[in-house]
């Protein structure tokens, strides 16, 4: 069974601090996505990473796909209160239609 | 272009009743997936439809069912509601291989069973 474990589960930091969220699995994924979800809303797709070792930047957010395509990380520089939300990684494998969501990291950035 | 639209946004039902939720995907998207989200279990996959055919199904009891129409709109039905069915139900759409490129989600339907 494919599983995606995220750490930490909860994170509360001050505005301006940096943070990293991890998404780990023992399975290989063809691609991984990161989403952010705000209370009462659906997840919003932030990025897709496909190639092992790939790094993508989205303003203050940096996403990395592990070399073996089993893990990923999300790094936020100088966090802002607007970054508050539930961060979810998710992955799929070509050849199947299965799509797995991670356990989630709830981030709160205090002003 | 319009996003994924789910109706209704909020619903309160009594144990034992049945409920139907609706999802209109982004125009041109042929894949529609449904998820149940609860604080304890996170996002749990229910099923995926593509061109009116169910091509993937999660581990939910037969009380949960769905269908997709020729215009790609989808409905999910839950019969004999239980208290544990209270959750945010999310619909997501993609062109086809959403599991490789990601999905666009609706805002969800918050179902409360009393």
Mean pLDDT of chain B: 94
Shape of chain A: globular
Overall mean pLDDT score of chain A? 94
Number of helices of chain B: 1
> How much helicity do the residues of chain B have?
under 10%
Count of helix runs of chain A: 0
Structure summary, number of beta strands of chain A: 11
Percent range for β-strand residues of chain A: over 45%
Distance between the termini of chain A: 40 Å
- The topology string of helices and strands of chain A comes to EEEEEEEEEEE
| Net shape of chain B | globular
Biggest interface pair, counts: A-B, 25 and 25 residues
How large, in whole angstroms, is the Cα Rg of chain B?
Answer: 13 Å
Low-confidence stretches of chain B: none
Termini separation of chain B comes to 37 Å
Strand count, sense and barrel status of the largest sheet of chain B are: 7 strands, mixed
Helix content of chain A: under 10%
Write down the oligomeric state.
Answer: heterodimer
Major beta sheet of chain A, specifics? 6 strands, mixed
Low-confidence stretches of chain A: none
Q: Could you characterize what this model shows?
A:
The complex is a heterodimer of chains A (111) and B (114). With 111 residues, chain A is an all-beta fold. In chain A, the strands form two sheets. In chain A, strands 2, 4, 5, 9, 10 and 11 form a six-stranded mixed sheet that branches. Chain A starts with a strand and ends with a strand. With 114 residues, chain B is mainly beta. Chain B is 4% helix and 53% strand. Chain B contains one helix and eleven strands. In chain B, a hairpin with a 5-residue loop joins β7 and β8. Chain B is globular and about 35 Å long. The termini of chain B are far apart. The model of chain B has no long low-confidence stretch (mean pLDDT 94). The chains are: A mainly beta (111), B mainly beta (114).
Detail the topology: elements first, then pairings.
The complex is a heterodimer of chains A (111) and B (114).
Chain A: E1 5-7, E2 10-14, E3 19-24, E4 31-37, E5 44-49, E6 55-58, E7 61-65, E8 71-76, E9 85-92, E10 99-101, E11 105-110
Parallel strand pairs in A: 2-11
Antiparallel strand pairs in A: 1-3, 3-8, 4-5, 4-9, 6-7, 7-8, 9-10, 9-11
Chain B: E1 5-7, E2 10-13, E3 19-24, E4 31-38, E5 42-50, E6 53-57, E7 64-68, E8 74-78, E9 87-94, H1 98-101, E10 104-105, E11 109-113
């Amino acid at each position: 069974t494919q599983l995606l474990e995220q750490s930490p589960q909860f994170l509360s930091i001050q505005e301006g601090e940096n943070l990293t969220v991890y998404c780990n699995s023992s399975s290989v994924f063809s691609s991984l996505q990161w989403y952010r979800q705000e209370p009462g809303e659906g997840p919003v797709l932030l990025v897709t990473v496909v190639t092992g070792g790939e790094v993508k930047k989205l303003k203050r957010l940096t996403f990395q796909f592990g070399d073996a395509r089993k893990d990923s990380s999300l790094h936020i520089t100088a966090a802002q209160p607007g970054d508050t939300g539930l961060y979810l990684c998710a992955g799929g494998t070509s050849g199947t239609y299965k799509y797995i969501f991670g356990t989630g990291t709830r981030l709160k950035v205090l002003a | 272009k319009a996003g994924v639209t789910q109706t209704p946004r909020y619903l309160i039902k009594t144990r034992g009743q049945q409920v139907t939720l609706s999802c209109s995907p982004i125009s041109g998207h042929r894949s529609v997936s449904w998820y149940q989200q609860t604080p304890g279990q996170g996002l749990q996959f229910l099923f995926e439809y593509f061109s009116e055919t169910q091509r993937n199904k999660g581990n939910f009891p037969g009380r949960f069912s769905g269908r997709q129409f020729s215009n790609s709109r989808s409905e999910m039905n839950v019969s004999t509601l239980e208290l544990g069915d209270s959750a945010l139900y999310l619909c997501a759409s993609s062109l086809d291989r959403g599991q490789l490129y990601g999905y666009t989600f609706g805002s969800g339907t918050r179902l409360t069973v009393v």
